[in-house]
Amino acid sequence: MTTAGRPRPHRDDALIAASGLAGGLVMWAFGLYTDSGNHPAGDHRWLPLVPLAIMAGCELLRRAAPRCAIVLGTLTFCADFVIGSLLVTVLMFTDLVYAAVLYGPKRLTRVVPVASVLTTAAATATALALRPVAESLLIGVIGALVSVAPAWTGVVVRRHRDEAAAERLRAEQTALLAELDRREAVGRERARMARELHDMVAGHLSAIAIHSTAALSLDRHEGPGREALAVIRENSVQGLSEMRRLIGLLRDSAGEDGEPAPVPRLAGLDVLLDQMRAAAPHSAFVLRDERPGGAAPLSAPVELAAYRIVQESLTNALKHASPGEVPVLLEQDARALTVTVASPCGNGGRYSSGPRAPGSGSGLIGMRERAELLGGTFEAGRNGTTWRVRAVLPMEGNA
Fold first, then answer.
1. Could you tell me which of 249, 262, 247 has the C-alpha nearest to residue 202?
2. 210 confidence band (pLDDT: 50, 70, 90)
């Protein structure tokens, strides 16, 4: 949270700062220094309160601005060591080192543990060079307790926290992918049922209605026979009307709840991208439609193939790509529609170390087949630090 663009201290950090300041004042009042032979007296007795107050202020920034807090805290700790240190000041510094690793940016997480080890080793070597006695080794022990131990503790805690967050994200994305697959399967099944009802049952009912009408037009049927034909015609026409209404319900329900229709078009890409953004908040799915305003309309097979290629590419990006921008580019000229999807790769130009959800590996094959059925071309592979999918679909392919 911020106020007027400046970081706002966390409530727990304010409590830590207040507790540290109060504890330091109590120790100062009773003269409890870490080194009883190295502390100011007389008119300068108040000097240890300066680093105590500054260190308490740094504790307020341990989460909001960890880089600033660790730099200022280190300088304050050095001054406090010279003046005559209070134990509470040292403890607050160790907490700053831990918080810098746990809450700071990744670069700070890598720098602080290494710097703590190097600084402790240098201080120990200097102490031994100036005073080659066993007591000089205590400098190394103190340095390890004050900086090395909290820094590497922060590394371990942060690693476990990041792994837990990654597992939660994988679980959420896997659940969303499964739900998308389920909804798409239901939509396809409803569309198939609608086609079967239309092509078979509705066709038979139409034939019955037509033949019964033709029979009624003849004067050969009188009495009960004519009445039976009339009932047959009436029921077949009514059944055909109900069948058409049922087919309409199946087709409408297959695309409800803002989902793309079973036979979607490019106009449904916005809904598809919204679903992907909800599944991967750390990635930016962007649609760039650079087709000219007066471009020729696309045939249904071309639009369907383009939509499915984009859908499969974004699903693969959701499973495998590193966080970052995933642009979807649509280009059209007089001859073809070109679809390009680029997703960021981690680990030096490769997809992430493992997929976030299992896959059959047939997605690329399916996209290639869709493009080739229209007489187009398809290519997919690494392009620098991105994985690029590009399909060229001819306008005259299956218009």
1. 247
2. confident
